[in-house]
From TrEMBL, chains A, B, C, D:
Lineage, top ranks: Bacteria, Pseudomonadati, Pseudomonadota, Alphaproteobacteria, Hyphomicrobiales
Residues reported in the UniProt entry to bind L-aspartate: T126, N130, D131
Species of provenance: Methylocystis heyeri
Protein name as annotated: Argininosuccinate synthase
Matching SUPFAM superfamilies: Adenine nucleotide alpha hydrolases-like, Argininosuccinate synthetase, C-terminal domain
Residues annotated for ATP binding in this entry: A14, Y15, S16, G17, G18, L19, D20, T21, S22, A41, G124
The keyword ATP-binding belongs to this UniProt entry's keyword annotation: yes
GO biological process: one example: argininosuccinate metabolic process
InterPro entries given in the database record: Arginosuc_syn_C, Arginosuc_syn_N, Arginosuc_synth, Arginosuc_synth_CS, Arginosuc_synth_type_1_subfam, AS_cat/multimer_dom_body, Rossmann-like_a/b/a_fold
GO molecular function: argininosuccinate synthase activity; ATP binding
Gene that this sequence comes from: argG
Protein location: Cytoplasm
Domain Arginosuccinate synthase-like N-terminal stretches: 10-173
């Protein structure tokens, strides 16, 4: 697609320091003749960022063009937590660990582009996945005229061999284990690790144990359950076992607990936004616990009308995030509705962690809507008259009775 | 409410044979002077029905007025399975085990009322719960002018002492352990056991182990996982480990598997239709497995558009069943949509059962929509051109870019 | 229902000054022995409030217990306008003129009850309608332990004759034309007039012309169309034909325009919350114009994602207001989402009023999202590449092609 | 995009006989060297099809390759009527006249492609509109591997001058009035006429009168209203003024009535699927009447639960049709739900047509759910006890009271 190639002067690359984005870095320099600005974020993926700086320098990036930032708190506070207020699960199960990180990276790239006067941004996502969409919708929503470079859709390095050759030709250091095709590809941040491809591509075959990296095999998890309490304030988790923690520290702690007890594994065939089904493996140890906990505190403090509306809106909300529409007005509208509901989602839940499961075993709140006197079998001094139920049923039944009479008159039932 | 008391000649009572419904039986005879017809159903609750007949006779019900029916196959085939096609979970978690049984009982009572010329039906549900609503909406939807008697809303036997006195005065046999207040109340059928009340009423306290009756404690479940395959045809499970089974037999088998591995326990604070929160404990061993399995086969065979629409409709569908609107037109409309989607939901899933969890580990289908060639990283002969993604993103981004330009012009972002 | 009668000391009555609420006033004094506090609001119903004060005094209400308030601005600003931001129409057509007034009246009654130490509130709505529900849900949502008196559900004045007799016995003045049964009953406020009952009860018969009071017969409306401009700011109308107007003044002006041109009549069979169908006639001259205008300015300034989400949420939102759940959390959540969308709904629309119709003929906005360059047939310098459409279509088609291939393999299509 | 040009042997062209599709025909022959098969459909656009045959022959299409079909009955019966069962309106207003015709044309082209062994299909829709999407999603859904040619996205005839030159060079007859740029472009079928472009592109300017072709100006419509009855069976219109009519004949008759009275004009700024806003003018005289009529008969015969569910699903359903997803599973699921609801939508409505408006004035049905006795003010022998309302309200209020108590305890309200 030579004809569509843009004239680029300066480009901000989402740079991990790994082989693939190093190749992209070099390719941008050689193909586009562009000055490359690297952006490397700590989102809790569990890798040190120091080497990324060294490697960028080695590849000729000017020191002032190397941006490295620890985004863990911002990530959890402004992206993960708002999403968990919605109990968001894509296709009923996926906790959106990759999807939720992309908008933040996109936003930071755009900020750096503005700061450095760059006219383009670049990401390392492939041409068949969702991430290219998420990155680019983010870019365009924030900077509508930015040029976007997606090397995997543009270049002719379409085989592993071609990539390695390019790397060798350009003096890019190659770790031994990166020469061959990886048995699967991985994305990681503080919320989750995901894997897909190669050994995972047959959905009839169980995921091999070596694919998992962030959780113990439940069979090898402790034989004794562990109890934990989580405190919430206005919909967000704020403390574990009575210890106040910042958002990122709290999620880190939950990840440790989840890892130990083998919680949060998911083997999923999902529907990509680009139109195909794929099979992925996800590990979201802390997130899986957090979901159970949040649902638990909501069950006590959220009104039925609010809770049911949230449940009905959730699939749409999750789909929007999955598809990359974090910065779209309809996501913001749904967020406004969801946030409105969380005012009293404050209190404490208790969970039991054991062999792959996080089970809610107790919840309490100063804002509880549960009224023991009301629910107790005896009719008491409370605001409930058994006879009210008759009227309630009668009027709810009225339209059904009218329907039944029509059926009796000649329609069928 | 004496003034509203109806003139009743014959009444069909949903009769379990237990103490409470025996008291109701006698109360109907003495208070209303009505001829009582008993209906006792085997819904898989796990009790023998023989004693119910004997007891009804003892209490003066004429043999021709005693109806006992094994409804297990009809229950699973026409109620449980259609509901599982929707992956229905009330408030995200509850598998609706009690809710789904009520319409069938109501339907049978109405059929017997017609057969026997009865002018009333009667149930033993209390005045604060959902079941009264479910029974009565069912009655009215099928027979709009039937009289409904709900003793718990009408009588003055409002304490355990009063009930026992009434029983003694009327020669109703009382088992020793029924004299005192039960520590919790229970409902059971082939899909689940539920418990609520008394010892469960503090939602901060963990459910005591003795409340569970249908599942092993996960901690005492086998230390070795068990693998099982489930085959589906058009959305319904038809075989386990290659053995074809009738609906009820299949659910029974799943219950055994779930019991062994401690699967399907749920401790829930839920919102009742009558307006209060209550706390219940549910055990749905087979159902919990079935849900995972059905979601698994759908993930492979259901189109994204259909799957997402189902996810969005589900909360409403579940709410309708929970609230007792099984026979309402809107439930039937949703069912038509759901059933339409299940045409190719055929194939096999493989699950791993272990210590409280049922985990999907594989799925395959002759109608699979998963296309390994399409998803594979290399661009192949298949119908996917990486460049298509650019156009796809560009047009999806167009409105976001227009918004961003407006924001730049003076609106904020 | 003597047994349920509450002990009441002081009661705040929603008092119109008309015969029916005067009877209620007296009945409260005589039956409950309660001190009556009257509340009369000007909601734009088009009646003077002076006589209400005089009549209340005549009926023995102490001067300090007579509350009269002009609520027109608050009504339009805080109830009508927020509702119109949603384009709310119940069952596709009804502009909710009665429904939206009830919460405000309920709120004021509760405020007065608090101020005066009253322990009860009372309304004059009948036992078959929606208004009783709307009033009482409002009362309970704001003051959960308030006693509620609904005379039409309680008393034995169940015929016109009985009412008139009661009035005569209690020296309540009776206008001549109120002695007989009214040919229809009416509710009015600044947003609308509604009529129902008697002459309207056969839904096959056209509404007689004399029922209409707020609009000209379109056939008698001017033969020449009138053009009008309406300006919006953040979703609310603020000016007509360049003249800035307060909310109530603006709606008043729209009502005059609508009256002249015969706009806003509606003959509807609707579904009441209490379970029956009823037939009503509505005149909403200004509201009908406002809806067209608001949709018009939104069409230019609202993003597609926001607009479609609003359209999907609207029926639920309208249903909540119709059913009386203005003060429920789910209505507030939806309002938060809707309000979030209105930030740039600013600009001017032009309408043509003629013989019963308000037609949008033009719209413009500094925040317009319409881009003439983008939409023009020629491919220009703008951000649209025709080839993008191919990729967009291809990826949108991908799942449909996969389905078609499955169908070809053996499934049917 | 030469590199993506497909090898084509035989191509089925949607051919109108007009200048533009004649140019396409010739372009396909000359550029692709393909044998062209023409398909010309009578969808009620109001043009004779004879000339299309003559012109195709003139342009060298073999007689056996010319397909001309009258699709009017199929169009109305299988596309328009099912859509009207849903009361579908895109963005609240647009009756989807163009959108609903595309799937049928696509289907016929695919059928002819199969019959003639063609390997490609071709349409004349431009690269910025929705129709390209609708055609192509239809093609791909029915024949996943068909090649699709979209000349407007491919060729370099990007100006009127280039087109006319190409026509002249290729001996394509050119009507005098087609030499210049048309002042607007038009689509027509039995359901509607639409116009867009050029003179319509400024959304602030009123649509000039000469753009309208299918309706009288309301100001010039008869000064006397006309009454008309429409009979429905199971959701579809079957007779007008007592005369049974086939679907197409019925819609034709409604169009005549609507034309006379100036009904069904719409001036709309809408959101295209491809991401931009456009401004169009629609005339749907018969459809506008049909919508009012169908809503009217539903109001009498449809249960509230069904009606409200339909209202909530409608925007999604309309969006699917607008976006071209007629053949998608989710559209079929929604159709199944909608059709399920129409079983008793049978009866007669009466409308008044006058100066641009179709107003419902009466409705009756053997399956009416309206119960005059139930709704009448007096409490009668019917199944309604005023006291039931109290219980109904009390239980609906229960959760609101609980919320209010929480607010009083320390939360705010």
């Amino acid at each position: 697609m030579t004809s569509r190639k843009k004239e680029i002067n300066r480009v901000v690359l989402a740079y991990s320091g790994g082989l693939d984005t190093s190749i992209i870095l070099k390719w941008l320099q050689t193909t586009y003749g562009a000055e490359v600005i690297t952006f490397t974020a700590d989102l809790g993926q569990g890798e040190e960022l120091g080497p990324a700086r060294a490697k960028a320098e080695l590849l000729g990036v000017k020191p002032e063009n190397i941006f490295i930032e620890d985004l863990r708190e911002e990530f959890v506070r402004d992206y993960v937590f708002p999403m968990f207020r919605a109990n968001a699960q894509y296709e009923g199960l996926y906790l959106l660990g990759t999807s939720i990180a992309r908008p933040l990276i996109a936003k930071k790239q755009i900020e750096i582009a503005r700061k450095t006067g760059a006219d383009a941004v670049c990401h390392g996502a492939t041409g068949k996945g969702n991430d290219q969409v998420r990155f680019e919708l983010g870019y365009y929503a924030l900077e509508p005229d930015i040029a976007v470079i997606a090397p995997w859709r543009e270049w002719d390095l379409t085989s592993r061999t071609a990539l390695i050759e390019f790397a060798e030709k350009n003096q890019i250091p190659i770790q031994k284990d990166k020469r061959g095709e990886a048995p699967f590809s991985t994305d990681a941040n503080l919320l989750h690790v995901s894997s897909e491809g190669k050994v995972l591509e047959d959905p009839a075959q169980e995921v091999p144990d070596y694919v998992y990296s962030r959780t113990n095999d439940p069979e090898k998890a402790p034989d004794t359950p562990q109890y934990v309490t989580i405190d919430f304030e206005r919909g967000d988790a704020v403390a574990i076992d009575d210890e106040k923690l910042s958002p990122a520290a709290l999620l880190t702690r939950l990840n440790e607990l989840g890892r130990l007890h083998g919680i949060g594994r998911l083997d999923l065939v999902e529907n990509r936004f680009v139109g195909m089904k794929s099979r992925g493996m996800y590990e979201t140890p802390g997130g899986a616990i957090l979901l159970v906990a949040h649902r638990g505190i909501e069950s006590l403090t959220l009104d039925r009308g609010a809770a049911h509306l949230k449940d009905e809106l959730m699939p749409r909300y999750a789909e929007l995030i999955y598809n990359g529409f974090w910065f779209a007005p309809e996501r913001e509208m749904l967020q406004a509705a969801i946030d409105k509901s969380q005012e009293f989602v404050t209190g404490r839940v208790r969970l039991k962690l054991y062999k792959g499961s996080a089970t809610l075993v107790g919840r309490e709140s100063p804002y509880s809507l549960y009224d023991q006197e009301l629910v107790t079998f005896e009719e008491g001094a409370v605001a409930y008259d058994h006879r009210d139920a008759e009227g309630f049923i009668k009027l709810n039944a009225l339209r059904l009775r009218t329907l039944a009479k029509r059926a009796a008159r000649g329609g069928k039932k």
